[in-house]
Amino acid sequence: MTETTEQPETPIDQLSFDDALAALQRTVAELEAGGQPLERSLALYERGVALHERCAKLLAEAELKVQQLVTRAGGALETIDVSPETARETE
User: Fold this and answer.
1) CA distance 62 to 58
2) Does 1 or 17 have the greater pLDDT score?
3) What is the model's pTM?
4) Cys-Cys with 36: which of 25, 40, 42, 85 at CB 3.0–4.6 Å?
5) Coil, helix or strand at residue 72
6) Are 27 and 44 within 8 A, CB to CB?
7) Rg, C-alpha atoms of the chain
8) Domains of the chain: residue spans and CATH
9) 46 with 24: CB under 8 angstroms?
10) What gap in Å lies between CA 19 and CA 48, rounded to an integer?
11) DSSP letter string over 12-51?
């Protein structure tokens, strides 16, 4: 079992999906609690948007990997490592 090790100084674009999702949940909870000064609320909101985008990107990449499964001769499946930029259309 992996432990969430997200630190405030960890760049969002380096977080795993689980770490980004946990950070997003904490950020939303802090925003919902209220009572922060406007500047803190704005910073939390901006961080939440960035964390949401990170999660969405990682999910899109995972979906592409699933979509890029191809059947080889004999019915075995082969995965093709792709990124959104290099994805090919499936028929």
Assistant:
1) 6
2) 17
3) 0.68
4) 40
5) coil
6) yes
7) 18
8) 12-78 (1.10.287)
9) no
10) 13
11) GGG--HHHHHHHHHHHHHHHHH----HHHHHHHHHHHHHH
